Amino acid sequence: MTPPPGSATHDVTVIVNGTERRARVIPRLLLADLLREEWGLTGTHLGCEHGACGACTVQVDGEPTRSCLVFAVQVDGSRVDTVEGLAGSGPGLHPLQEAFRARHALQCGFCTPGILMTLAAYLERHPAPSETEIRQALSGNLCRCTGYQHIVQAALDAAAAARGTTAPA
Amino acid sequence: MKFVGDRHLRKEDPRLLTGRGRYVGDIALPGMLHAVLLRSPHAHARIVRLDAARARAHPGVVDVVSFTDLGSAGRAMPMVPPHAELRGHNFNPLAGDRVRFVGEPVAAVVATSRYAAEDARDLLEVEYEVLPSAQTLAPGAPAVHDDIADNVAGRVTLTRGDTAAALRAAPRVISVRLRIGRGGGQPIETRGLVADWNAALDQLTVWASSQVPHQIRQFIVDLLDLAPHQVRVIAPDVGGGFGAKLIVYPEDVLIPFLARRLGRPVRWIEDRLEHMLAATQEREQEHEVTVGFDDAGRLLALRDRFVHDTGAYTPRGLVVPLLTASMLTGPYRIPAVESSFESRYTHRVPVTPYRGAGQPQAVFVIERVLDLVARETGRDRAQVRLANLVRAEDMPWDTGLPNYRGSGHVVLDSGDLPSVLRRALESARYGARAADAAAARAQGRLVGVGLACYVELTGVGPFESARVRVDAAGRIIVFSGVTTQGQGLETTLAQVAADELGVTPGDVTVITGDTAGVEHGIGSFASRAAVAGGSAVALAARDVRAKACLLAARALGVAEAELEQTGAAFVERRRPERRMTFAELARLAGAATAALGVEPGLESTRFFQPTDMAYSSGAHVALVELDPLSAGVRILGYWISHDSGRLINPLIVEGQLQGAVALGIGSALLEEITYDESGQLLAGSYMDYLLPTATDVPTMVIDHLETLSPLNPLGLKGVGESGALPVPAVLASAIEDAVGPEGGRVTRMPLGPARLLDLLPAALR
User: Fold this and answer.
1) What is the structure's pLDDT at B200?
2) pLDDT tens-digit series, residues B204-250
3) What's the rounded Cα separation, in Å, for the pair B192 and A64?
4) N or C: which end of chain A has fewer CB atoms below 10 A?
5) Burial state string for B628-637 with b = 16 or more CB within 10 A and e = fewer than 16
């Protein structure tokens, strides 16, 4: 976003997926637009731009956060993790991504990055969730394609795998 | 078949799971500008004056365009398909002197950023003369179009037999009025376009989040006076469609127009409010149904007269009400049927097909009728259905009603409908569930079981195309005229091609949704992509394998029968060291001389033109409990038996069914587009238009039958929409069971909490 002439700007520094990045931004620039338009991290998607669908969910200092409701200036000095960094720097997939693939937990894939960032944070803190708990954790993310069943199953699989057990089929 | 039928994991997933998908909003070109639209705030008004001076002066603004700037590109867009009874009107790319619904595009602002463009949009000054608007289906509403005083866009009657006489003769007759409200496809990715005019090539490239890129190209060609070779339209990764991306919209022509006018790339991404305001919707109908039946619950005559809200324009003609009317009898044998409608204009968003396309209304009507007949005759709901279902030995079954395309009758091509229902009942343990529900009701809980059957029209023509090519590096590329919005066609079409070519799906790259891939294509809607697209791929891949085998035989100087295929090579049986790979054969074919006796190129373009539609079928059973305090519905169990012919990939079919049921739950219990008396949208966000969440959708148990369709090479039937069709009907049936004889009757959809409250037995209200 090239700032209009004469408008105030702020410098922000953010650790994005483990790498420090800087930008000069206008005060109202949304975090989602900073990630997508300035830094080319287009894996974070905008579905509703009013905080309801969850597609734009990223992690800010480990907390799932709607990047359409946060200004870029608010994350100055923070760590921001997006779907592009979920699997780390290697070529493989994160175990949750693996489980999504194995269970056919995505169709169009548009809501998927937000759901992965939501569930990855949730499973870190809740290693042995029930199906009901996963459904509740997921209830702030809208998916129009899947009916959620395979997503829930994938999350149960990923949690079980992390515990070294197997989820019931 | 080695890969068709396999629960193959999707080829598209690694990309989509790691944020490397490419949706239209991810495409950024050097020098790209951003367009936003000013939309009408009124349902009906005359545009008296539009002053763009302040907007133009805003920093960053490059252009402001309204109707008068469009010239010949401002013509009304074509309508598809035509119909003799249609009195049609379609959008212009921008409104002329009149706006006809809240949200109709009036002007475009183009700027160096979306932020600047939105700021400048606020500076546009438009003076409207507000006119009274049609917000009711009742006669006498203000005319939407000057040449159609009665607002009737079309009036059609379909008949089988003498319904009046059959109703007179029937031992029992009963009538009911049913209403269905509006909803929308609501893909999580909104609509959007990027257009790039290349002056050096005189060519336009358009990326569109669309289900019909070939049709968009045709509209651009028509309205911008370009030749087809000058326009390439690409549907990249598309974040869901469900019908909301089925028609060609004003922006699909307008954004390319702006790119050519300005000589710079232009991006427009619809925001969610715009999507709620202006993306097409569906379902609103009012039915008056009369049924004649006997004491055994057999249907003898059915008359349905309904009014259909078509909104302000008819970009898809009469398709939706024709589908409702023609599919009314669904899976049942009814000797006499009269199904008629009036499609009426209103000053609201145009109505075009969304997942189900008129058929959920038909299923709701006929299944409500069957529940009513069961109640009137004191018979079990499942038994009444079994007494009326078309039997396996009746197939193919001619319903006697003309199909929506006017190409003949609705003829169910294949299937075993009673088995489908019986298996759903067994899977659900229907008898035990019904007894449990009754026991729970005796203890004061509101628990009920519901069921519904359906058939779905799938795999419509006129054709679909495929080009299968082996290049000189041995790469196998499948180009298809269908598009993919999440259905996994990169995987399923690769499975089909792999089997025909004797390779693996991993060897095959599938490219869909690109007009540069195949010259002619139709797109993805009407549950047609796998059926029509998959059949075309099978035909083209068969050709390529046959040609490869012939070339190998010629090159090796042996008969074809002397060869066998191992992986990507054709090998002489007796001298296995003599072999030709696909890559070598492609090089040979690339330099084919007359002596070789084949045309150059190891590729084939084929079209599949279905002779008729293939009908899939199914039955759903649901167990629900109502909470009288919150008037909420909890779905305790959900069972599906479904027959969509041969399954290319059962995993993907299950995903399609689960997603469609979730959408059906939304349209039954949560989602409704409503307007106030002046045509203002009352549900413009996801705070008040509620999509189902993970806590609203139950785990479903799915059972497949595979009755092959005789109408295509692989025996396929479509599935994408099927799951959505019976959900309002099955939940209506279950809710009515739950509230018991003291409660109300379900006569409309959707059922929000307020309407559910009205259904509760008086003692609980």
Assistant:
1) 96
2) 999 999 999 999 999 999 999 999 999 999 999 999 999 999 999 99
3) 27
4) C
5) beebebebbb
Closest CA to B180 of B286, B288, B64: B286
Per-residue model confidence (pLDDT) at position B450? 98
- Rg (C-alpha) for chain B, rounded Å, is 27
Work out the number of other CB atoms within 10 angstroms of the CB of residue B671: 22
Q: Which of A70, A136, A51 is nearest to B685 (CA)?
A: A51
Name the closest residue on chain B to residue A97, using Cα atoms.
B17
C-alpha B184/C-alpha B182 separation (Å) is 7
ipTM above 0.95, yes or no: yes
Please tell me the distance from the alpha carbon of residue A104 to that of residue A149, in angstroms, as a whole number. Answer: 10
N residues, chain A: 169
* For chain B, counts of helices (H) and of strands (E): 18, 29
Contact B449, B715 (CB under 8 A): no
Quick one: what percent of chain A has pLDDT higher than 90? 88
For residue B688, give the nearest of B697, B699, B680, B700 by alpha carbon. B680
- Residue A20, number of CB atoms within 10 A of its CB: 9
B405 to each of B130, B161, B166, B259, B321, how far by Cα in Å? Answer: 38, 21, 28, 36, 12
Amino acid at B671: E
Which helix (H) or strand (E) segment holds residue B731: the answer is: helix B727-739
| Whole-angstrom distance, CA of residue B508 vs CA of residue B498 | 7
CA B443, distance to chain mean position in Å, is 43
Are A50 and B686 in contact (CB < 8 Å)? yes
Q: Which residue of B has its CA nearest to A150?
A: B655
Pairwise CA distance, residues B478 & B497, whole Å: 8
Q: Rounded to a whole number, what is the largest CA-CA distance in chain B?
A: 90
Residue B107 has pLDDT above 80, yes or no: yes
Measuring CA to CA, which residue among B409, B213, B415, B438 is closest to residue B327? B409
Touching B: A residues 39-78, CB under 8 Å = 40-50, 52-53, 55
> pLDDT tens, B540-566?
999 999 999 999 999 999 999 999 999
DSSP β-ladder status, A79-81 and A10-16: parallel
CB-based contact, B57 to chain A, within 8 Å: no
CA distance B729 to B746: 9
DSSP assignment of B43-83 equals SSEEEEEEE-HHHHTSTTEEEEEEGGGSGGGGSPPP-SS--
Closest approach of A16 to chain B, Cα-based (Å): 14
Query: Quick one: which H or E segment has residue B321?
Result: helix B319-326
Distances, alpha carbon B254 to alpha carbons A88, B95, B138, in Å: 42, 12, 35
Contacts of A113 in chain B (CB under 8 A): 19
Buried b (16+ CB within 10 A) or exposed e, B130-162: ebebbbebeeebeebbeeeeebbbbebebbbee
In this predicted structure, what is the pLDDT of residue B703?
Answer: 96
pLDDT at B753: 84
Q: What is the pLDDT of residues B426-471, one digit of tens each?
A: 999 999 999 999 999 999 999 999 999 999 999 999 999 999 999 9
Query: Strands B125-130 and B632-643: what pairing?
Result: unpaired
Q: Which of B593-597, B625-629, B649-653 has the lowest mean pLDDT?
A: B593-597
Is the four-CA dihedral B720, B721, B727, B729 of positive or negative sign? negative
Distance CA A31, CA A14 (A): 11
d(CA B441, CA B437): 6
- Strands, E, within B459-538: which ranges? 464-470, 476-480, 508-512
Residue B490: closest CA among A43, A106, A103, A157: A106
Find the mean pLDDT for residues A62-83.
98
What are the structure tokens assigned to A32, written together? 């989602």
